[in-house]
Amino acid sequence: MDKIFVSGMKFVDEHGRERIFSGMNVVDKKEYLADNPSYGYPAETFPFEEFRARGYDIIRLGFTWGAMEPKPGKYNEQLIESLCAFLDKCEEHGIYAYLDCHQDVWSPQCYGDGAPHWATITDQFKPRKPIAVWAEPYFYGKACHRAFDNFWDNKKINRKGLQDYYADMWKHVVKATMDKPALFGYDFFNEPFPGADGGKIFKKIIAGLVKTTITDKRVNILELAKVGLFSKEKPKALDQYPGEVFKNITTNCNELVKNFDENRYSPFLSKMTSAIREITDKGIIFMENNYYSNMGIPCCNKPASVNGERESQQVFAPHAYDLMVDTPAYKYASNSRVGMIFDQHRATQERLQVPCLVGEWGSCAEGDGWYPHIRFLQDKFDSYKWSNTYWCYFDGILEQDFMKVLTRPRPKAVTGEIVSYKYNHDEGEFKLKYKQDKKFKVPTVVYVDRKPKEIECDGKYEIIELPGNIGYDIEFKTDIGEHEIEIEF
Fold first, then answer.
1. DSSP secondary-structure letter at 312?
2. Up-side HSE of residue 259: CA atoms within 13 Å toward CB?
3. For the segment 223-268, what is each residue's pLDDT rounded down to a tens digit?
4. Cα 40 from Cα 78, distance rounded (Å)
5. Is the pLDDT of residue 343 over 90?
């Protein structure tokens, strides 16, 4: 497989081609079970061939700390063997994968997933089971908050800090996987949460919501009450909070988020990066945003560093969801709200001057009312030249109707620098513009999900049918100059 590197704000391969990646999260979040310690998606049964035929070439491969280190310093070797087998199969099918140590509301003891029982230190606070939504412990769960704070404070267990255990766990995983050709990089911590300050942020958001609703003239209170109280489509009441209004609601949280990003998360990120760089110089480092920056609060991460020197191989991997996520009302998801969040992530990317691979996005619901929202997000990613991994894979997903939306034309490898690319779903047309400043022995590669009716370009091309009879790779051979490829379906 081609070696992939970071160059400025883009990914390039060993040949010098600009690369764009698309894929899915494949995450096993189950709690550690001694009688079933292996990975939840066995490599021998995962549909790699169809996955690739859908145009996917990257996987966010998630496991939990609790499953990897069920006892302090004792690692789950069977889980590591399962991950290695998965990475080997990825290589066989030309698919990259980056490792994600996943968590939601800290751990199973806090009614989520992630950390082991021994690393869940809630002190005097007892976890309370969520009533309405899974994320409730983030909002007002003092036990969850304390568990995070003890981690960020590196509280000691048996005279060793929690973060030090975590770093050693990652070093153990890296030693076992670092020579796998499909391994793309390391995502150390899913959606880092600010602990007790996270509870304060939630209260400020509620206060901001009340204040904005009352004082902002862009919010029509009568319409809000009419739709929210009497309409059969109550979720439409949130249309009163488009992107710019929603952004105003969260402004009073900016300083708390900045404090967490700069003083807790950024030092942690550099600590983890330094730990694995003791083992290998391979693998791209993934910088996520904190949980509340999923809502558009500016992310203030500093780039990861090793011995005071900025790490050269790192990527910004933001997440963003609409308020309707994980509900049947996802068909009412707002392009304006989520568009604002991703525009804020774009500003962060430009500040950090690194590539962007959206680590989590999307959702699903019954019917097809949410399909236009998904296309809106895909168009935005294309406009920014962003790679992405959709949330998330489940058994049978590739047979779902909405795969016809997720599967779409895109560039995979471009001989030179991409100027722009765009897929017009309504017109059935894909366009790619790029500048090539040298001759390449390898082609530009564009994935298409069906056979084209017509192709216009100034070079030679070959259409290659992928295994699975779903999609095609089109290989273009072009010379030095500016190029435009047009594909009609």
1. S
2. 11
3. 999 998 888 888 899 999 999 999 999 999 999 999 999 999 999 9
4. 12
5. yes
What secondary structure does DSSP assign to 439-468, as a single string? --SS-EEEEESS--SEEE-SSEEEEEEPTT
Closest CA to 269 of 284, 281, 287, 251: 287
- The neighbouring-strand residues paired with 326 are none
Residue 249 contacts by C-beta under 8 Å, 6 or more apart in sequence?
A: 205, 208, 209, 212, 241
Q: What is the pLDDT of residue 328?
A: 86
- Residue 125 exposed, middle or buried by CB count within 10 Å (0-12, 13-18, 19+): middle
Q: How far apart are CA 196 and CA 198, in angstroms?
A: 5
- For the beta carbon of residue 440, count every other beta carbon within 10 angstroms: 18
Burial (CB count within 10 angstroms: exposed 0-12, middle 13-18, buried 19+), residue 323: middle
Q: All domains of the chain, ordered by start, with CATH? A: 21-195+262-401 (3.20.20.80), 408-489 (2.60.40.1180)
Helix (H, G, I), strand (E, B) or coil at 241: coil
Write out the two tokens for 100.
Answer: 């994600």
Which helix (DSSP H) or strand (DSSP E) does residue 344 occupy?
helix 335-352
The amino acid at residue 353 is Q
Token pair listed for 300: 């203030």
What whole-number distance in Å separates Cα of residue 245 and Cα of residue 221? 13
Percentage of the chain beyond pLDDT 70 is 100
- Whole-model pTM: value is 0.97
* Amino acid of residue 81: E
